[in-house]
Model the fold of this input.
Amino acid sequence: MINVEWTVTAQEGNARTGILRTRRSTIETPVFMPVGTQGTVKGVRFEWLEDELDARIILGNTYHLFLRPGAEIIRSIGGLHKFSTWNRSLLTDSGGFQVFSLTDLRKLSEEGVEFRSHINGDKKFLSPEVSMEVQAALGSEVVMVFDECAPGKADFETTRKSLELTARWAQRSKKRFDELQNQGLDTGFLEAENLSGRQALFGIVQGASHLELRRESLEKTIEIGFDGYAIGGLSVGEEKSVMYDVIENIAPQMPENSPRYLMGVGTPEDLIEAVYRGIDMFDCVLPTRNGRTGSAFVSSGKLNIRNAKFAKDTEPLDFDCPCSVCKRYSKAYIRHLYQTGEMLAAILISHHNLAFFLDTMRKVREAIRLGSFGNFRRDFINKISESEKQTKFEN
Ligand SMILES: [Zn+2]
Done:
């Protein structure tokens, strides 16, 4: 019985393309995974994600789905795929990141984390075992271990304690995960007789900005052994140079024959810089979150549709973007929708932003295959910095 199959198909320096096969879809990497926090990618219907955007894998958030509608409801309906009708791959996070963002509402122990729901204040408990059980109920293709996320600026000793706890939790996660798989309690497995393969489990490397601790965490994680490896706890307020430094030192040390996933990152520029340093998988809320605040990602950087200079601008958000929004709608019209509070503004910009991210990754894969990723990276970054120069000049 396979869980995921992983093959590297081309390599240029540390950058690589690969194919990740799960029981539900074939995913070309480097890949950007749109975030579907509540079982929906905000403002974007699955039809668009499947057809035009061709997303092969999206994320679901264990924390949010655990609170609402709750694991029992999703299990009784047959899993998140059946509940939502999304039939391609799903990756679920462990809930750890969200729980540890609730600094005032939680109590940490060796056993797990007790916290109060941000919705109604109810007392809840998450542990490695509970997280594995919820993710089995969701029936995702890729399950993440339950980890503790130390704050980005945590000192050496705090970070060391945190990563030691994370390693013990990773071991417990794996034990419970294996039991659930052996008992056939993964809803994806139960639901689909024609699906071969089970859930995969990814380990997470922590250690904040301390390289020595990052290496230690990586060793411990590899020792336990997972189907894939992730870098967690980055893009949480540290300097960009610190983030790139951690990736540069850790990604190439991660097992070559497993996918490498950078959690919660980032802008298109960050994605390219991380691919350059050896990362294969990404997720981030930026395309849809910015979509709701009127901010569009374009080849020249970012543009804010609220800007008065777009009031009569009949051009698309981005001439180079192949998406259906850019084929049809003008900046002036989208700006008008935004200014009048029409929900379509957020829908259109979110759609375009996701298209821009996914298309950028398509170009990245193509460039690596052709051996021209070095040039692609330089051109991409140059276009952005030129526009920033221009913005400064205009101000
Ligand atoms: Zn577009």
